[in-house]
Amino acid sequence: MDFLVNLMGFSAAILTTIAFVPQVIKVLRTRSTRDVSSGMYALFTTGVALWFCYGVMIGSWPVIVANAVTLVLAGLVLVMKIRMDGWS
Known about the structure:
Monooxygenase
């Protein structure tokens, strides 16, 4: 049963994490973050950081891994947004 629970957790983690890859690729290719919301990415990145901490606290590898990767991807977009367009 633990195997199925972890499989479901990792599957959900993979899908929700790779959802950010197209946005990161688009920002890197176009060097434009004009249509990206600073507020949304700031809130989301903070939430992902908290999920990561929660995963560490409960020792859940699917939560830890997914949120570590998502934190890097969302954080990259947020940093690029602030550097390119400021806080707008």
